[in-house]
Each structure stands twice: as structure tokens, then as C-alpha cells.
Please model this.
Amino acid sequence: MRIVSYNVNGIKARLPRLLEYLDEQAPDIVCLQELKSSDETFPEADIRAAGYGAVWHGQKGFNGVAILARDADPVERKRGLAGEPEDEHSRYIEAEVGGVVVASIYLPNGNPVPGPKFEYKLRWIERLSAHARDLLAEERPVVLAGDYNVIPNDDDTFSVRAMESDALMQPESRQGYRRLLAQGWTDTLRTRYPRGGVWTFWDYQAGAWQRDAGFRIDHLLLSPTAADRLADAGVDKDYRGREKASDHAPTWVSLR
Model:
């Protein structure tokens, strides 16, 4: 079973690239982020025509997450996170597919630092961690996939100096991510590439793609039951270089 995390940076703008990816790679499950689409304008018909069922949690112009399943309809379990009732951002959706619980996550960016957006980011990480503990208690295969907007380690970026003042690399952001991992989750790309140097995002600005000036912010975390089935993990980097591509590359894990 191949499970993909893919921040599409606008599903309507990137729909040709997404359909191309589904056709060429035929992943079993795809977790999408940053749809920038309302529930009503989500392109369900196009995705279903490509052979995928879907559940989604949209928001006009911002955020938005979805889970696609090949030749199946994901069974939605949860949308949104508890702990902040006034939070209307569409950043979390969870479903069951083929006996695996999968979440698509779009964690807040948090810039500028300091400020209310950064404080919201840190609260959101804690809310995710609280729910993650409940998921672990189920003792089932669970995959938390998404754009975490956290660069976990210095070797997860092309330049520590360039990113040191960014919310993605602040000590508090990293600590929140590490506390989540400490619950018992496995960071699949880190397991596969322990020395780092693997990017999932390249900015559109300053020739970042051409210079390979990227960093790793898209993560797939596995519960212990899922980690026992880990076969491989990687980044489909070439898709970032295609015409009108997202600034993220599809990032994946393969489970036995």
C-alpha cells in the first residue's frame, strides 16, 4: 500500500498535475493539502473519473485538506481538531481506508515570528498531539500525513542561516514536533534517510528549484502498528519540476 502526502497549492490550478500523478503512479491513498477550494467547488467528478473516491474539508481560497483512495471510498472519521471551538480553518481530516486510519494535515505556517499566527501554530501542534495520543491508544495502523510546516533538523534544509528566523525552524516549532514523535510515532523519511538532505518543498522565488534550495516540511508519521509494515519511503521529486507544478513534491510511504 502506497500512501502519498501532496500539498497541491490550489487543487483547481494544479488539477492537471494531480490527475497526471494519479495516472502515472497509481498510489493507493493520497492525502492532499492546501486545496484553496470550497467544499462545493472541489473537483470530485474529475477525481472519481480518475478512479479515486474522496473525502474533503474545504475552505474558499485558503487551507483545505482531502483524502483520496484508489477504487474505494474513504470512510470519514473526523474533520477538524478539538480544543479551539472558534478555529474555522480547514486543516485536518481523517478517514479509514483498507483497515488503515489516515489523516491529512495542513499545519499552520506561523509567520511572522513573534505574533498571533505563531502562537496559533504552537497551539495547533498541541491540539494535534492530544488527538494523536488517542489514535495511538487504538493500537491500529495509523498514518499522519501532511504539510507540517516544520523543518525538524538542521540537515532538513538547504541553509540553516536562510531559515533561522522563519517559524518553520523555531525551537518551539521543533520541540512541538519532537514531542509528537516521542509519543511513539515514526518519521518515515527520517528513518529512510537518517542523514537528511532530502527536500519536499522548493519555493517559487529566487530560483529555489533550479538551485535545489529546498527543505523538508512534508512528513508521514506512522503508529507502531503501521511502522511494523514500513517497506520504503521517498519523494517523487521530478514532479516539482513540471510545468505549473506545486511548490511541494509528492512524498510517500509504502507499507507491506
